[in-house]
Predict the 3D structure of the following.
Amino acid sequence: MATTKPSFLTGISCKYDQDALSNIDYFWDEVCGTYSIRDDAKSELENHEENKRKIACVLAQRKCRRITFSSQITIDKTGKDSDSMQEKIEDLLSLYPSPSEIFDEALLNLSYFVTHPSDNITITQNKSWYVYAYNLASALWMLQQLEKLDYIEFKEKFLNEILFSITAKGWFKISEINKNINKDSNQAFIAMWFDDSMSSYYGSIKAAIEQNNNEYLRIDALQHNNKICDEIIAEIRRSKYLIADFTGNRGGVYYEAGFAFGLGIPVIWIVHQDHLEKIHFDTRQYNHIVYDSPENLQKQLCDRIKATIV
């Protein structure tokens, strides 16, 4: 039975539940989103406070950027488990920005808090995770560095919150960051249902990518000796953009699209018209290509790639 308890990662009071048979704790954290953690992973992170903070920031980034799949934190398990996606501690830590990336990533996170460039943004103790900080004091330091770069402008600094806005220079920087992600890559990653009924549509996707002088990759066609989830993550990281076909409503496609989206890699959303009503409500907000034939898909996709990627 669900109760209330401090989130394991952030300490924020939230809804909590436990599966005693599987040794898994579940948290509904307002900053990190819904996540679960196995007992062995919890023990590991309790001895490494800095890693715990980094994973909180990684999940906060996803929540901020509207990536809504539930992560289950593990030591050695990957892949889908019921409604969650199992992710190893080491894989989550690999998503934490390097020192040279952290200010760009913090600025990108902040851009998701506004609907118009003139809007003010408020950072509180709980929201400090969005700028890769863990309390208001460390968040203030991060924001001061962004101010020195002329990316933000402070409005007010109160005891419990900081009020500021993104400057014109900051918005130009955000646009530059988005344009430069994997700009030298020529690879398009295809995330879709591996079913015989999709063969002709897979052919159309490949043709549309080739028409725009890009190379395509679907993970089942890649020869490798590594674990499949590791290869998926590595290849998405190398890709210029990702095409996500939600026909069949496959959990892996949601994960791969969310992973790319979180890295700032452009995602082109597509679905067969017979499956449009079955896709998750969290992704319906995006402009899907809705197709009804291989020919129709190839034409629409080719145009979308030209318009938004190439």
In short: The longest strand covers residues 13-19. The chain is about 40% helix and 25% strand. Residues 205 and 298 are 6 Å apart (CA to CA).
